[in-house]
Specification:
This protein is of the alpha+beta class. Helices cover 53% and strands 10% of the residues.
Length: 247
């Protein structure tokens, strides 16, 4: 059985790192199915928990959660990342975002299924530790990133590029070849019979949101308007050397 899981994992790595048609649609479907499976799994696991029994394991839960959050994981992360020359702030943040999830709860079910003595207590502690991790670490990720000064700076327009926000927009249904030839940009492979929308969705490899952008040989294409998840309008910024007519 383990060989089948390993084979499926390796196949996913190979396929995920190669160009695939309708990649964005596949990722969108997989995300939806994954979230649905997680919701069902947590609902089923939650039915095995008795709230008043969690209070009986409060001491062990606090001790284990504190050890994992503030000692075990930060030290393990630092030891793993030290050879890769990560800074102390980066290692500390990576250690803090190690949220506990469904896997520890599922593993805690194994002793229960085997009928081992005290296994229910073990399950309650694992469930409470996961809950504490989600509530404490999950709600403080943004705060921790700001305190450790590792947030990404806002994107800045290069000096040799002039912003065209609100002045130059393109219809997402335009043929890609017409757009690139008009602005004298190198054509990507397999550009025939592809719209500007299709090209952007394939390059983004996920559901687009307003503000998403793609840099292409001195030009930047950005999503300007969406409707039902479909790109309608695309903004374009070109290097100053390009001569284009703007609205």
């Amino acid at each position: 059985m383990s060989r089948h899981f390993l084979a499926a994992y390796l196949a996913g790595l190979i396929v995920g790192n190669h160009p695939v048609r309708a990649y964005a649609s596949i990722i969108s479907l997989n995300d939806a199915v994954t979230w649905l499976a997680q919701i069902v799994m947590f609902l089923v696991l939650g039915l095995l928990v008795t709230p008043h029994e969690l209070l009986g394991s409060l001491g062990a839960t606090v001790a284990i959660a504190a050890m994992l959050m503030f000692a075990a994981r930060p030290i393990a992360v630092w030891l793993c990342l030290a050879p890769l020359r990560f800074s102390g702030r980066q290692s500390l943040f990576i250690g803090w975002v190690g949220l506990r999830g469904a896997v520890p709860i599922v593993l805690a079910l194994v002793p229960m299924m085997q009928g081992l003595p005290g296994s229910h207590h073990f399950f309650n502690v694992a469930f409470a530790v996961v809950l504490a991790s989600m509530l404490l670490q999950g709600t403080t990720l943004g705060w921790a990133a700001k305190r450790l000064v590792i947030t990404e700076p806002p994107p800045q327009t290069p000096q040799d590029q002039r912003p065209v926000h609100g002045r130059l927009t393109l219809d997402a249904e335009l043929p890609l070849t017409d757009v690139f030839e008009f602005f004298q940009l190198p054509l990507p492979p397999h550009a025939e019979s592809v719209s500007l929308r299709d090209w952007m969705v394939d390059h983004l490899a996920r559901d687009p949101v307003e503000g998403d952008g793609i840099d292409w040989h001195g030009a930047r294409f950005e999503v300007r308007k969406l409707h039902d998840g479909q790109i309608l309008r695309v903004g374009l910024a070109l290097a100053s050397r390009a001569k284009v007519a703007v609205e």
